[in-house]
Amino acid sequence: MYIYFKHKFLSWRGLSLRFFLFGFALFVVSGNLLAADLKLAWDAPTTGATPAGYKVFYGTSSGNYSSSVDTGNATSATISNLTAGNTYYFASVSYDAAGNQSIYSNEAN
Questions:
Q1: DSSP state letter for 91
Q2: What is the DSSP string of 3-56?
Q3: CA dihedral 59, 61, 66, 72 (to 10 degrees)
Q4: Are residues 59 and 86 in the same domain?
Q5: What letter does residue 65 receive in the DSSP assignment?
Q6: Which residues lie across from 93 on neighbouring strands?
Q7: Residue 104: inside a domain, yes or no?
Q8: Does the residue 77 lie in any domain?
Q9: Which residues contact 60 (CB under 8 A, 6 or more apart)?
Q10: How many other C-beta atoms can be found within 10 angstroms of the C-beta atom of residue 13?
Q11: CA-CA distance, 2 to 9, in Å (whole number)?
Q12: Any idea what DSSP says for residue 71?
């Protein structure tokens, strides 16, 4: 059986191959479509000692942070490979040259 499409006759076999290749290509890129990046930024303290650096903690449950990123002395961070559609919770700490950490910041989600 043939289908007339744009002045051409196409067989079902030819169409099914094209649909398969399209589906496969969509599957290959879908991993990147479901990943998300988030840019966080904050203000450095204006009083007291200057921190040696900052860490951002995050996870999918409030108050339970399964991952962290050490940003050094930068006041921003990009968190990569987050799953689109999930809710994430973030908190940060500052630390001094000896590695002593502050308490967690207010949580953001």
A1: E
A2: EEETTEEEEHHHHHHHHHHHHHHHHHHHHHHTEEEEEEE-PPPSSSSPPSEEEE
A3: 40
A4: yes
A5: -
A6: 55
A7: no
A8: yes
A9: 66, 86, 87, 88, 89
A10: 9
A11: 6
A12: E
Residue ranges making up the domain that contains 55: 36-95
* CA pair distance 38, 100, nearest whole angstrom: 27
Cβ-proximal residues to 19 (8 Å cutoff; 6+ apart), any chain: none
**Mean pLDDT, consecutive 10-residue segments, the chain of 109 residues?**
51 49 48 75 85 95 95 94 93 93 92
Kindly state whether residue 78 falls inside one of the protein's structural domains: yes
pTM: 0.68
66/60 Cα distance (integer angstroms) = 8
Q: How far apart are CA 37 and CA 83, in angstroms?
A: 9
What is the model's pLDDT at position 33?
54
Pair 62, 109: CB distance under 8 Å: yes
Looking at the fold, whether 55 and 90 belong to one and the same domain comes out as yes
Please give the DSSP secondary-structure letter assigned to residue 79: E
d(CA 45, CA 88) in angstroms, rounded, equals 25
Q: Which two tokens mark 67? A: 């991952």
